[in-house]
Amino acid sequence: MTPSPEVSLVIPVYNEQESLPALFDRLFPVVEGLGRSCEVVFINDGSRDASLPLLVRAVQDHPYVRLIDFNGNFGQHMAILAGFAHARGEKVLTLDADLQNPPEEIPRLLEQMDGGHDVVGTHRVGRRDPLFRKLASKVVNRISNRITGLAIQDYGCMLRGYDRRIVDLINQCRETTTFLPALAQKFAQSPVDIPVGHAEREHGTSKYGLYRLVRLNFDLMTGFSLVPLQAVTLMGLLVSALSVLFGLFLVLRRLLVGAEAEGLFTLMALNFFLLGVLLFGIGISGEYVGRIYLEVRQRPRYLVRRLYPEGPEKESRP
């Protein structure tokens, strides 16, 4: 294993014991066929199945494989950040362990990076996901681009390439919650986006349920823009103006028509609408306050239990 390989592959793993053998069979021939000095950095994100022994065996069988073992589950993006902190390559690629993005696409990303692109994004073509998930993804991608001002076609595809300069800038950030593709896009000088294949998950289940997807998109929208907070402010001003106009209308109506018992349900509907706007505004404000709370605590973003093959990690990574 060379001290400074040209290419680093960062792969987070969480409960993927069924996918790992197939991943090894496809990934390692691709790595060895690149004709470049490479390293593969796996991050075991607190797996509770047999993923860790399989990864340790891969370290023993392949000198270019390294392993970071977390002492708990800290999430995909924190795992990738740990991989970035330990990756030594001039070109760093990320890949999921579930084989939904084929490792055979890696040479295409490196070709784009050789052409001078510092960030290589990807978007999935021929997605093998349920229709609802694909439609939801399109809607979220468009809304996210509008709010953040970015131009990322597929926020959910983690097969991506980053130049060493981008990785070093990301490593300097100390955000407790972040969204790596968007963060890299902010730093990029010459980004590019290419289509890649997509396969149906053959083993296991997706680690992103509805709640985690919603949580991730809140991190994206509140972490890279003040638009949600500003939109709530504008909505409050608009509702206040409409409320004043409606109040004037009711006063004039009472003077011209007289007291009436009608309109009770209309007033109740308006009251519920205003209450909904109020709660929505409190929720958005709470998201930003929550992010501030997470940052000021300054707790470690992840804890490393052991590094392979180096040995026990002496301290947590901030």
Automatic annotation (TrEMBL):
Coiled coil: none
GO MF, any single term: undecaprenyl-phosphate 4-deoxy-4-formamido-L-arabinose transferase activity
GO CC entries: plasma membrane
Keywords, in A-Z order: Cell membrane, Glycosyltransferase, Lipopolysaccharide biosynthesis, Membrane, Transferase, Transmembrane, Transmembrane helix
Listed GO biological process terms: lipopolysaccharide biosynthetic process
InterPro entries assigned to the protein according to its UniProt record, in alphabetical order: Glyco_trans_2-like, Glycosyltransferase_2, Nucleotide-diphossugar_trans
Pfam families tied to this protein: Glycos_transf_2
UniProt domain Glycosyltransferase 2-like: residue ranges: 8-167
Keyword Nucleotidyltransferase included in the entry's annotation: no
Name of the molecule in the record: Glycosyl transferase family 2
Organism per entry: Aminomonas paucivorans DSM 12260
UniProt lineage: Bacteria, Thermotogati, Synergistota, Synergistia, Synergistales
